[in-house]
Amino acid sequence: MSHDCQSCGACCAHFRVSFYWGETDTAPGGTVPAKLTIPIHSTYVAMRGTDRHPSHCIALAGKVGEQVSCGIYTQRSSSCKEVMAGDEQCNKARRAYNLGPIINQPQEEAEIPC
Ligand code: SF4
Ligand code: SF4
């Protein structure tokens, strides 16, 4: 997670985080612990806790908007990697928690996304 993400976590507690079941560790090459997921239909699963409202990923530790961490950071799904600090989805999630938008800096100065 980038510096912004470590004090945020809003996207991990706002959206349904779903992805192809083949990303779970029950499939060859899969990484996401299957026990932390729940099937949502025949080929897709979601991170537990994000399949309901209010959403909160089971792997998210800490308090949104203060200090957070992902318990499976190196094993997280492609959907987790898609949201970039400062993009539309990011700022949508942040708005839901009354956190101000992140304004992206020029590419060479941008932080590594979470
Ligand atoms: S991508 Fe955006 S919403 Fe998600 S944790 Fe990082 S700063 Fe927060
Ligand atoms: S697995 Fe980690 S990065 Fe993905 S939604 Fe959950 S806490 Fe966020």
Please give a handful of descriptors for the protein shown:
114 residues, two-stranded antiparallel ribbon, 3 helices, 5 strands, globular, binds iron/sulfur cluster, Puta_zinc/iron-chelating_dom, YkgJ family cysteine cluster protein
In brief:
By secondary structure, the protein is an alpha+beta fold. Helices cover 16% and strands 16% of the residues.
Walk me through this protein's architecture.
With about 110 residues, the protein is an alpha+beta fold. It has one domain. Helices cover about 15% and strands about 15% of the residues. It binds iron/sulfur cluster (2 copies). InterPro entries: Puta_zinc/iron-chelating_dom. This is YkgJ family cysteine cluster protein.
Uncertain runs: none
- Report the structural category: alpha+beta
Percent strand equals: 15-25%
Net shape = globular
Q: Average pLDDT, to the nearest integer?
A: 93
Query: What string, H for helix and E for strand, traces the elements in order?
Result: HEEEEEHH
Q: Quick one: how many beta strands?
A: 5
Distance between the termini: 4 Å
Count of helical segments? 3
- State the share of residues found in helices, binned by percent: 10-25%
Q: How would you sum up the major sheet?
A: 3 strands, antiparallel
Strand arrangement within the widest β-sheet reads 1-3-2
Provide the gyration radius in Å: 14 Å
Ligands and ions found? iron/sulfur cluster
- Number of folding domains? 1
Secondary structure: elements and pairs:
Layout: H1 3-6, E1 18-20, E2 37-39, E3 44-47, E4 60-63, E5 67-70, H2 78-82, H3 88-96
Antiparallel strand pairs: 1-3, 2-3, 4-5
The protein binds iron/sulfur cluster (2 copies).
The site of one iron/sulfur cluster (SF4) has 13 residues, from helix 1 and helix 3.
